[in-house]
Amino acid sequence: MGWMSDETGLNKRAANYVPLTPLSALNRAAKIFPDKLAVAHGTHRKSYGEYHARCTQLASALASMGVKPGEVVATILPNIPAAAEAHFGVPACGAVLNAINTRLDVATVAYIFDHGEAKVVLVDSEFLSLAEAACAEMEGPEPQIIEVAAPDHGHPASGRHPEYEATLASADTAFDWIMPEDEWESLALNYTSGTTGKPKGVVYHHRGAYLNAMGQVLSWRMVLHPVYLTIVPLFHCNGWCHTWMMPMVGGTLVCCRDITAQNIFDAIADEGVTHFGGAPIVLNMLVNSPEEDRRVFDHTVEVFTAGAPPAPATLAKIEPMGFHITQVYGLTEVYGPATECLWDHDRWGDLEGHHRAEIKARQGVEMPFIDDVAVMDADMNQTTMDGETIGEIMIKGNAVMKGYFKNPEATEEAFAGGYFHSGDIAVQHGDSYVQITDRAKDIIISGGENISSVEVEGVLMHHPAVSLAAVVAKPDEKWGEVPCAFVELLDGAEATEAEVIAFARSQLAGFKTPKKVVFQELPKTSTGKIQKFELRNLARDI
């Protein structure tokens, strides 16, 4: 018999096994940090004791409205305290949180209401007309609207629906939280912003959210009491799980309703912000901000950036401004970040400028809560780790979604072969660091040659007049496809199409050089991603 072969009586029981859930983090914080500032938004400043009480009242109110465990409660909210409270208050009554993108169109919101079968929706007054119009278009029962008034931001209560603060005030602060009996229970429902067809509903469980939040503390090298600025929308992968993370370290959540360079600099200077996450476009906004929008601060701000590979030119400019950038990578299906460009000081400590930025632009290695990240070929074999052989990023681990809601076929397809198929095309370096070359749909195939739009964009971003660049395929009779660049210039800067093409040609092979350059503002999603599908439509008609 082997060692420990007889495990009679060594069972899971109440004393030694508790389902993992991010709800436990706020329960603990309310007990050990009751007077510590938990949430700040202008004059709204709540301690952990008050934050917990408000989340409890929300849970109580939802339960009294008939919301049952396992049912869906939606939100249409910007990054405000109510959005943070919903991340705890909704699951505290056993419900599943569905945070909806505030920039979606009426038909899509109506579809999400119907598909998710939301019983209640918390709606900021700014987006009330969107919610009401979506309800009117629904096929099934409409959710009860609770209006979250924003009078300080020019959006007073309409009077047409129960108001959030009044709803909380009438609820029970002694409501007993409904904790999950099984950590696999659903916690959140997030709809992917699909560019074709209906959005898919990604389901998170309590275990994954807890491990993701806890693991990012390690990846971000966090100590107690950070001050975190909510730039990533809480409707985007639940703000990368950062709102669930803050109570774990007794941190302060600073809400940023409107994402502007001035608001970010003000928060850093006035609130002492130490951490935030955001797409590369946010870094670009800070780098190109006018002097009058900037504030002096004397500490280094830790930044997670993701959503698209950041241009080395942007990274080279922002770090000297007082920001330490860590490139992370993930998708809605993996709760937000899943890999990090873990910095190796022994190998890269002496790198500066462009060389340093090129390494920082890698997506990196798996975070602590991910079992494996690999780049595989079409037969799901590991590609050669030479930094050149392309394949698809595959992910396996505890922070991968349960699956797509009411869509078993798409779930099976996404999980074929025992890994989650990301749809992102990448190379893997000899040290296992992953580097994205493109989304599968963004690869440009010109005369049989694969062109990475990311590579061409990286070159264009070095042009002194360029603020943002996006490159897509333009149909071509001879080559099948050729690169077409859409360029947003810096304020006051000038450049011609010929100049930009010549600049690119000086650094790229001829077939990779854009054959057409269009100067315009680039269409973006609410999280700052450039909407390439719109640009592809434009390129077809040029």
Question: What attributes does this structure have?
Answer:
single chain, 542 residues, alpha/beta, GMP Synthetase, Chain A, domain 3, four-stranded parallel sheet, globular, ligase activity, ligase, AMP-binding_CS, 3-methylmercaptopropionyl-CoA ligase
Description of the molecule:
It comes from Shimia haliotis. One of its GO terms (biological process) is fatty acid metabolic process. InterPro entries: AMP-bd_C (IPR025110), AMP-bd_C_sf (IPR045851), AMP-binding_CS (IPR020845), AMP-dep_synth/lig_dom (IPR000873), ANL_N_sf (IPR042099). Keywords: Fatty acid metabolism, Ligase, Lipid metabolism, Magnesium, Metal-binding. It is a single chain. The chain has 542 residues and is an alpha/beta fold. It has 3 domains: 30-179, Rossmann fold, CATH 3.40.50.980; 210-440, ANL, N-terminal domain (Rossmann fold, 3-Layer(aba) Sandwich), CATH 3.40.50.12780; 443-540, ANL, C-terminal domain (GMP Synthetase, Chain A, domain 3, 2-Layer Sandwich). Helices cover 29% and strands 25% of the residues. It contains 18 helices and 25 strands. A 9-stranded mixed β-sheet has the order 2-1-10-9-11-12-13-14-15, sandwiched between helices. A 4-stranded parallel β-sheet has the order 4-3-5-6, sandwiched between helices. The longest helix is centred in the first third of the chain and has 17 residues, at 48-64. It is globular and about 70 Å long.
